[in-house]
Specification:
Strands 1, 2, 3, 4, 5 and 6 form a six-stranded mixed β-sheet that branches. By secondary structure, the chain is of the alpha/beta class. The protein is built from five helices and six strands, in the order βαβαββββααα. The termini are far apart.
Length: 167
C-alpha cells in the first residue's frame, strides 16, 4: 500500500487525548484503505472537537441541532479525489470526532475508548470512500460488516453480540 498521511489535531480542551490514540487512528485509516484496495498515496485529516462544536457543525451541514459522535467531510466523489499539488496524494477528506461523545458512548456500550474511537474512525473513512448507511438496507449492512472486519483485523473485535440472548 502507498503512503498514507493522517493529520490529527486536538481542537478541544474538555478531555485529554489518551496516549496511543493518534497511533490507533493512523492504524485505522491505513487498515481501511488496505482493506478497500485503495491505490496511491492519500491524505486524511482527523480532528478531535467537543460536543458544542460538533453540534454546531451538525446543525450547519446536516440541519440537525444535536451533538453527534463523528462527522465525515469527503473531498471526492465516485472515486475521484482532489490531489495535493506537491505530493500527488489523494485528499480523501476530513473527519471530526467529539471526544466527549465518544467517551460517553464507550461507557454506555461497555467497551474501551480505543474500540469506540477505532469504530468511529473506520466508519468515517468508509464514508470518505463513498459508503453510506443513511438509507439502511443492504448498504448499511455491508458497511457494518466491513467496519467489523477491519476492526477485528487490528485487534478491536466486537466483544459483545448485537443479538439479545433473551429473545
Amino acid at each position: 500500500m502507498s503512503k498514507v498521511k493522517v493529520d490529527i489535531v486536538n481542537r478541544q480542551k474538555v478531555i485529554k487525548v489518551p496516549a496511543g490514540m493518534r497511533l490507533l487512528i493512523k492504524r485505522c485509516c491505513c487498515s481501511v484503505l488496505k482493506y478497500e484496495g485503495f491505490e496511491g498515496p492519500a491524505e486524511i485529516s482527523v480532528s478531535f472537537i467537543d460536543n458544542a462544536e460538533i453540534q454546531r457543525l451538525n446543525q450547519h451541514y446536516r440541519g440537525l441541532g444535536l451533538p453527534t459522535d463523528v462527522l465525515s467531510f469527503p473531498l471526492g466523489e465516485n472515486g475521484v479525489y482532489d490531489r495535493n499539488a506537491e505530493t500527488g496524494a489523494a485528499l480523501l477528506g476530513d473527519v471530526v470526532i467529539s471526544l466527549e461523545r465518544a467517551t460517553q458512548q464507550a461507557q454506555d456500550f461497555g467497551h474501551s475508548l480505543e474500540r469506540e474511537i477505532g469504530f468511529l474512525t473506520v466508519h468515517s473513512v468508509l464514508h470518505l470512500l463513498g459508503y453510506d448507511h443513511e438509507a439502511g438496507g443492504p448498504e448499511a449492512a455491508i458497511m457494518r460488516e466491513k467496519e467489523e472486519e477491519i476492526l477485528a483485523s487490528i485487534g478491536l473485535a466486537r466483544d459483545v453480540s448485537y443479538i439479545d440472548p433473551d429473545l
